[in-house]
Amino acid sequence: MSATPSTTDDTAQGTKSRPVAPPRAADGGAALAGAGTLFRFALRRDRVRLPVWVLALFLGTASSVSSFDTSYDTAKKRADIAETMDSPAGLAMTGPRHYLDDYNIGSMTGHQMLGFTAVLVGIMSVLIISRHTRTEEETNRAELVRSGVVGRHSYLAAALGVAVVANVALGLLLAAGLSGMGVDGVDGQGALLYGLAHTAVGIFFAAVAAITVQVTAYARGASGMAMAVIGAAYALRAAGDVGSDWVSWLSPIGWVQRTYVFVDNRWWPLLLVLAAAVVCAAAGFFLSTRRDVGAGLRAARLGSPAGSEGLTTPLGFALRLHRGLLAGFGAGALLLGVMYGSILGDAEEMIEGIDELEEQLAEIGGANVAESFASVVMIVLAVVCSIYVVMAALRPRAEESAGRAEPLLSTALSRDRWVLSHAFVGAAGGTALILLAGIGFGASGAASTGDGGLFLKLVGAALAFAPALWVTIGLAVALFGWFPRAVAVAWVVPVYGFVVDYLGEILKFPDVLSDLSPFGHIPQLPAQDMSWPPLLVLTAIAVGLVWLGLLGFRRRDLETK
User: Fold this and answer.
1) Nearest-5° Cα angle at 418, 417 to 419
2) CA 345, 347, 349: angle at the middle one, nearest 5?
């Protein structure tokens, strides 16, 4: 029974009433007190973000399945692509060989889409957990809320609840959407398993993030650690599919791929994924009891007694803040370039007989199929690099919201220099990333095709996308200057670029849509000749957008704490 003091007897006896202490739940429920309220509040905060994530993942999958159905409409085409995929590079990029035994549209979807989409679902789940737990502590909002009747585990439980809701919604939408497309090989049972496989793997990575947010005191560090787990899971899956099968069983992505959806429709691997998720979530709750609010299990390293000279400059300080994110994306861009380059030698066999792709590459032109195919793949590399650019461009907004910009700007540091330092690091970092992707793509592409001259061509083609990345960061700076609460709109650029510039030819989008994307104006090297005017115009637009953002930032009030 609660020992809550009452003022009734005191009043009846004419004594002075005392403040009533807030009611306390029993021990079992005290740790989760207020979780329901936090859960509803988190859903309200994400009322736009989550639907965008879920719909983007669903539409990306649905458009891919529709593209498969259109592109591989004969048994011969499916047999040809299955033969091409039955190579170390093809299996590493897609999934296990068992899907190739009967390569219809359903098994093709499970083989080529499940592992790739699982990575994106994992990223969504990690960001949900980090946003509603560690970010709340980093901004001191959690401390304020927990001064009320809020249990120790309420924040984490609410965040996990939001992640479960998002993943279940995605799974059901995929199941309903795919089963209703009427595509040969995509039946109702397989569609339900395909959707729930995404649900299970999303919940697992949310549980992994529940652990990483206990380890470090910073949201970016926690997200980076969880995403490193996702990357390791994908790498283990790829290594197992190419070599020893048991290696894939070390990866949750490998588990869901071994449901062999639309082929055997195994359900039991999902139980394995969910069991692992429960264990990780329990570990996250346990570890949260071993640290203080606002602190991490890993103690912050003691800094040097004397700071580096570089930290005394705005540019050096901005580079210090961005270096972790830049290093992670750099490794990913290089690896992605190497993976795409490794299949460049098989490009002609991959697209042979696929009318839509052949028409798309014919419109591009080029001396050979490898160059035309490379110019299409280059858009994917540029879009991935633009994701980093957007994240880097949003850092000033995060610094301002956390109250860390205020003390800096109260010194002699001007607003222009502060914003420009972050914009320069983002622009230079994006250029370095696309260069690394081009080096990886060029080196492995030259090796797979046996054409050494392709290396410099692909590196140059990658660098041509730099002005498009600068426009992306210019848009983010302009939004930050004038509409700081709308900076997330900058995410439209990579999403729009991928859908319109990469899938647009296959989905038969009108050309005017491509003109609205900065990536749509880049010459499609090495298949086409170099054209400098579009690059110069994009550079001028980027400079203009940054100037516009600085103008707005000078005129608006700084968000203070």
Assistant:
1) 95
2) 105
- Collapsing DSSP to helix, strand or coil, 186 comes out as coil
Q: Supply 200's token pair.
A: 């299970």
pLDDT value of residue 366: 57
CA quadruple 185, 189, 191, 192: dihedral, nearest 10? -170
Give pLDDT tens digits for 385-442: 888 898 888 888 888 887 888 888 888 889 999 999 999 999 999 999 999 999 998 8
In angstroms, rounded to a whole number, what is the distance separating the alpha carbons of residues 345 and 446?
8
Query: Quick one: which of 166, 173, 61, 56 has its CA closest to 117?
Result: 61
> What's the gap between Cα 545 and its chain centre?
25
What's the Rg (C-alpha) of the chain? 26
Sign of CA dihedral 245, 249, 253, 254: positive
Question: Is 490:478 a contact under the CB 8 Å cutoff?
Answer: no
Angle, helices 415-449 vs 466-482, to 10°: value is 150
What rounded mean pLDDT belongs to the chain?
A: 84
Q: Which among 6, 37, 47, 219 is positioned nearest to 146, based on CA atoms?
A: 37
Distance CA 262, CA 197 (A): 12
CA distances 235 to 4, 10, 325, 378, 422, Å, are 55, 68, 19, 22, 32
Say if residues 425 and 388 touch (Cβ distance below 8 Å): no
Distance (Å, rounded) from C-alpha 266 to C-alpha 29? 38
Contacts (Cβ under 8 Å, ≥6 apart) of 147: none
Report CA dihedral (457, 460, 461, 462) to the nearest 10 degrees.
130
CB-based contacts of 274-280 (< 8 A; 24+ apart in sequence) = 274/200, 274/203, 274/204, 276/204, 276/207, 276/252, 277/200, 277/203, 277/204, 277/206, 277/207, 278/207, 279/207, 280/204, 280/207, 280/208, 280/210, 280/211
- Tens of pLDDT, residue by residue over 302-337, are 777 777 777 788 888 888 888 877 887 888 888 888
Query: What span, in angstroms and rounded, lies between the C-alpha atoms of 440 and 450?
Result: 15
**Cβ count near 358 (within 10 Å):** 15
Report which DSSP code applies to 140: T
List the one residue out of 337, 524, 344, 523 whose CA is nearest residue 438: 337
pLDDT at site 467: 94
Taking the mean position of all CA atoms in its chain, how far away is CA 354?
A: 30
Q: Indicate the Cα dihedral angle 425, 428, 433, 435, nearest 10°.
A: -170
Place of tokens 């086409």: 528
- Distance (Å, rounded) from C-alpha 361 to C-alpha 351? 10
Residues of the chain with pLDDT under 70: 1-29, 89, 347-367, 503-509, 561
Question: For the segment 225-274, what is each residue's pLDDT rounded down to a tens digit?
Answer: 888 888 888 888 887 887 778 888 999 999 999 999 999 999 999 999 99
Residue 56: which of 120, 146, 152, 110 has the closest Cα?
120
Query: What ranges in 46-153 are assigned the alpha helix state H?
Result: 49-71, 75-85, 88-93, 105-132, 134-138, 141-146
Structure-token match 């861009």, residue found: 333
